[in-house]
Amino acid sequence: MSRLIWYVSGTRADYGLMRAVLQAIDRHPDLRLGILVTGMHLEPAYGKTVDEIAADGFDIVAKFPSGEGTSGGAEMARGISRMISGFTDAMERGRPDIVLLLGDRGEMLAGAIAAIHLDLPIVHIHGGERSGTVDEPIRHAISKLAHYHFAATEESAERLRRMGEHADAVLTVGAPGLVGLGDAVMRSKNELAAEVGFDPSRPIALFAYHAVLQEAYMAGTIAGAILESLVARGFQTIALKPNSDSGGDRIRTELDARTGQPGLVVKTHLTRSLFINWMAVVDLMIGNSSSGIIEAATFGTPVINVGPRQNLRQRNGNVIDAASTPEAIDAAIATVASGTRFPTANIYGDGASDERIAALLATLPLQGVTWKSNAY
Fold first, then answer.
1. Which of 231, 353, 365, 369 makes an SS bond possible with 174, Cβ 3.0 to 4.6 Å?
2. Rounded to two decimals, what is the model's pTM?
3. How many CB atoms are located within 10 Å of the residue 47 CB?
């Protein structure tokens, strides 16, 4: 009998990273896939990206609004409680063989809490990484609740072992976000620039900045400093609106106030394919998105990582770190000349994690796995 795999998805970001893996699971003869949809996917303000999941033909087993329409630490915590309740009801009914989780967001923690109390095996992808701020302890908390770990790098796998996870439960598979990256690039800089009215002979930046809980009160100021420096340095900018984390409303307000300015195009959402194409051709990616840390190196795209959100995460050679001050941001942007590119080597894997993950999900021993001690 085929194994039933349920994946929890709450954002455009996690779904975009996992889409190729989910397709590999869906086509595997010994696996069946279901997706629990929650969070920003269901909110029009964030693009109502549940429609993309439905368009891809995946089985959406349940939808749970989580209150992501407003940002704030307290609402994020209340959202986790609502998701735990909803996930518990769905998992109790559906009894998946494996609950699959990615990364460090609250919906993944909620999925882990629900699954472990229902004695369901949990597989966690991208565990063992350090990323700064509140994301890091949430990621480690999910790892401590999980039974199997699909690490992106050997350094992350070794950290999981040092955290007390069983060596035979920690497997290095590579980053799902690298699957199919090269094949996805089908648009030239000239073509993309023409669509938004940019001059392709001038430098173009991709802005993807999300609020950090500890800096939520100054998120708008930081976003404004980035945008001001880009203008001063002659960059045209395509800017993505942030996720629902605390402080995100301040960034959205800053972007909304600048909408319509020459050389700035603001988007609520880009499809994964379009986002990848922009990331491949721009002269600079700036903000604090994990895609800058993990995926952008595949294209050699220069990345400026602002602030502590990706603190201590493994870097490729294309990443420049800048503190959350106007002076540090401007100094970093000044170092990136138009046309600068980096080697395309990527420490996060070979882009083949989709088939690797599907094969493991079909064959991992599950008998008694939920009784395995995770003690130090």
1. 353
2. 0.90
3. 18
